[in-house]
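task queued by scheduler; priority normal; single chain, no ligands, no partner chains; default sampling; output format set to structure tokens
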Amino acid sequence: MTYIIAEPCVDVLDRSCVDVCPVDCIYEAPDHKMLLISPEECIDCAACEPVCPVVAIFAEEDTPSEWDKFIDLNYEYFGQSRD
């Protein structure tokens, strides 16, 4: 499992999540105008979730269905698939 950043982050890029991430697995994705979490690097600590001011970060299995495409985006951006 990993954490996912979804649509509310688009055009916000607050970076509070980056500041608290103990493994630096959150990256700016300029082509998508948002931040994304590397699924391979994420240690599932959940430190990022409560500091997000726009409620854009979810545990993968808790991602709202309307933002399901962001699960794939988070994986594909880092050259992975969500198998």
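post-processing summary
- The longest strand covers residues 26-29.
- The mean pLDDT is 95.
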